[in-house]
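Handoff note, outgoing to incoming analyst
You'll be picking up this chain. Sequence as last confirmed:
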Amino acid sequence: MMHLLLLPALLGAFALPDGLAVDDAVKLAGDITYYGLQAPEEVVPGGTLAVTVYLSSKAPLGADIWSFVHLESKQSACRLVQDEAPSRADDGGITHTVTVSVPKTGPCAKPQRLEIFTGLYKRPRGPRVRVIDPPSAGDRIYAGHVEIVAEDADSDRVAFAPSEMEDDKGDSILRPWRPWIWSVLTAILVALLLAWLVNWREGAAPTPPRGPWEPQTRRERRIVKLLTAVALVVPLLLSVLAALDFVKDDAYISFRVAHNFVRGEGLVFNTGEHLEGITNFLWTLVLVPFEALGLDLFQVAEVLGTGLAIGLLLCMTRISVLINGFGRDLSHLWGGVWLATSSSLGLWSTSGMEQPLAMFLPVASAWLLWRSWSAPPREDDATATRKRRRDGLWSGVLMGLGCLTRPEVHLIGIIMGLPLVVRAIKERRLDRVWVNWAIGLLAVTVPAHAFRLLYYGSLVPNTFYVKTGASELVLLSGLDKLYDMFSFNNLGVLLVLAPLAFASKRRLTEKLVMLAVSLGFMGYIVKVGADEMRWHRLYLPALPFLVMLAALGLQNFVLIVTRLLKRSYAPVALFAAGWIVVLFAAWSSLSFTFTSMGGFNGRGDLSGNYHPDIGKFVTRHDRPGALVAFQDMGSTPYHAPDLNFLDFIGLVDATVAHARYDYGLHAFLATENQRNKPKFNADMREYFWKRNPEWTILTTYVHSSHAKRVSERFAKDPVPKSLGSAVRHNGYQFGIYNKRFEDSYVHVRTWPRSAGYYLSLFRRKDLWEQTPGEVVLDAVPEGIGGVKGELDRGLELLGSEHEREATRKHEFFLTTWWRVPGPMEPDTFFFFHIEAEGFRLPYDAIPGDWMYPADRWEAGQIIENRVLVQLPPRMKPGEYDIYMGVYRRSTGQRLAVVSGPNDGANRVHLGKVTVTPLVPPFDHLIKPTDVDEQRKYPERIIPHGRQPGE
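Most recent structure output, in case you need it:
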C-alpha cells in the first residue's frame, strides 16, 4: 500500500526502465526501497560494464551511507567490488550508476557467469543497511547477473526485477553444481549397468575377489615390497619436500601448551587460565615428551607427520587388498599413489599440526576392524578367535585416540560403529569383536573427556565459539568451499568414481561406511562454512576414505569390463589405462604442489624473524606474567613463554570467544550479524581496558593498491602514522586504535613483514615513561672490552661485545655500551652493517634496543644497547665484518667518528662474526627462547605489578 501511495511522487522523480515496477520492490531499514537493477547481458575481459541501481528514500541519505555492488563467480575466484556514494536526490528517487572494469588476466579472464549483489552500508567499515522484506543473507540483495564472454559481447542492457531474482536465487546456488550432479548420476547408472551385465552374463553369483595370486617366494615378496615402497613412499616424499617450507603459525599454540605442561603449569596456554584453546588434545600430548627433551618440535612434527602419512598409505593398501584382492597389476596401490601426491597431505604433513595423525588413526582402526570381519568365526580355531577379538579391541582404541586428535573424528567413530549396532540388532546377539571395539573406544574417550570436563569445565573447545555461526551465509560459504574443494586436485573426480565401487557387492558394509564418511564430512564442511587455513585441511580425515572408494571404483570398472570383453589383451590394456589415469592425476597434484610452494627451495620462511623476534623482544623487556594483547596466537606467544596473552580473535581467550558467539559473529565470515559488530567492539574495548595489557601488538593490512606507496612512506618514517588509516581498520582489533589508545600507549617499533603487512608494538605509557633499568645502568660494567671510541657531540663508545659464531637463519646478540652527553634528536638511530663481499645486512634501531630514544637521554648516563640480530635466509655461511655508527633518520646524516677504528665512512669496525651452516636435526630451525639469556638483568626490569591471572 505504501508503494502505491508513493507511486505519483516516484513517477515524477525518476523513471524506472521497462521490466521494473514500483510495486515490485525490496524494503530496507530507514524507509529505503530498492526497485531493481539494470546491467548489460555480456561483457568481455578487459571491458567495462555500467550497473544502474534504482532506489528511493523518504529522507535524504546520510553522507556516510554508501552503495556497494559485488560481482561474484560461483565457478572461480573472480570477485569485483565497487563502492561509491549514491546520488543524494532531494525528491527521494535515486538512480545510481557504477562502472566496473573486468580484468584481462586472472580468474575473471575466463568465460563465466557473474552474480550481481548490491546494498547499502555505513562507512567507514560499518554495518550494512538491513534488508527487511524479503530478508536477504548478509543484507546483500541478489540483484542480477552478467556473462563474461571471450568476444563479441552483447551490450544490450537488461532490467532485473527483485521478484525475478528472488525466484532465481535457488537456481543460482544450484547452477554451478549441475555438472557434478549429472556426472555422479551418470556414474551411478554406469555402476548399475555393469552390475546388471555381470549378473546377466554370469548369473546371480557375487563378483569373486581378485586373483588368486599372492607372492609366494622370498624373491616375489621382496619385489612386491620394493614396488610398494617406490609407488607410495617416493611420491609422498617428493610431495613433502615440495611443501617443506610451509609452517602454520597455529601449530605453535599446541607447542606452547606442551611447553607449559613441561614447565609444570598444566595443559594451558596462559598460566593460571584453564581454557582449552586447542582442538588437537592427543597431538599436544604426543609433543610433550619431545618438548621435555628440548627437541625442535617442528622437526619432530615433520618426522612424525611423514611417518604417519606412510603408515596411512600402507593401511589404505591393505584395505584395498582386503576388499578387492591382490593382483600382479598392483592396482591395489592406486588409492595410495593417488593420496601420496595429494597437495593437502604433503602440505599438512609438515605443518606442525595434527592432520597426519587425524588421518592415520581412523584408517588404521578401519583396517583392523574390517580385517576381523574377513572370515566367519570358527569355534575350533581359538587362535583366530583371539586375533579377531584383539583386532576389535585395538580398532576401538585407535578410533578413540582419533576422536581425541580432532573433534570431528567422532563422526567417523559413529559411522563405523553403526554397522556393529545394526548387526547386533539383526542377529540379536553381541559378538565379542563388537563388544571389544566398543570397550576400546570408550576406554579411551570416556576418561579423556571426563578429564577435559573437570579440568577445563567444558567438553567443547574454546575455538568452537570463535568458528561457528548460525547463518544462511555460513552454509552458502560452506557450499562455495565444497565446490572449490571439488576443483582442487580434481577431487570431484573421486566422487564421480565412487559409485563404481558398488558395482560389486563384495564387502558392501565397508564401502557404505567409506561413502558415509566421505559424504558426512562434506556436510561438515558446509556446516562450518569457512576454514581460514588453505588446501581444505578440514576434509583431510575423510579424504583417505573417498580416495579408497574411488580407487575401488576404478578397479571394479577395469575388472568388470575385462570380464565382459573376454579378450586376452583386455586385462593388460585396461589395467595399463587405469595406471595412466592414476599417474596422470598424481603428476597433476604433485606439479601443483611444486609450483605453488616454489619448488624444493627448503625452509625459506623459517628464519627467526618477525613473530618469534617479537616474542623474544617483549621477553627481554618485561617480567614473567606480563600481559600482551595480540591477534596471532602462535609463534610470538611460544617465543615469549612466561608472558600471558590477550587474544583479539578469541582462540585462547574465553571472554572474546563467548562474546563473539553471543553476538552471532563468526571470526572468519561476515554474516548478517555483522550489524552487532559495533556493540561487540564496544564491549571488547571495555574488556581490553579492564585487562590493561602492558604491551599491545597491532596488525595492519594494507591493500595491494596502496602497498607500494605505504611501504615507501614507512621506509622514511617507521611509525604507525606512515601506515595511514589502515592501522585503524583491522576488524579483529575491537577498534581500539583511537584517541584513548594513543593517549595511553607509546609506539615502540614496527616489524614490516611485507609491503602490505605490518606488526606494530606499543608499550603502556605509564611504564614507558619510567627509565628502563635493563637499558640504563648505574655504572659501567666491570671488565667490558671490545672496541672503544668517540663520536661527534660527545657520544662515547665504552666497549662492545658480540658472539663470534652464529648459526645460519638463527640470531646473535650484539652489545655496545655508551656514555651519552645528554638529550639528542628523537630520530637518532644506531645502525649496524653486517657485510661481506656482495652482501650487506643492515640493522637500524632506536638506542637501548628501541627502548630509550635519544631525546630521553640525560648527561652522563650509561646505556647498554643489546640488540638481537636476526639472520635472514639469504645470508650464507661465511665470515662477515660488523660495522656500526649513529645517524639521524630524517636527514641520513651520520655522526662523525672522532676516535676509534673508523672505516672512512663514519662507521666503527666492531669485529667479525662467522655464520655456520644450519644442520637439522642437530640445530633447531628457529632458535628457541631462553628466558635467562634474553633477560640479562631481570631484577632491573620495570615491575608490571600484575597479579597472576589478572
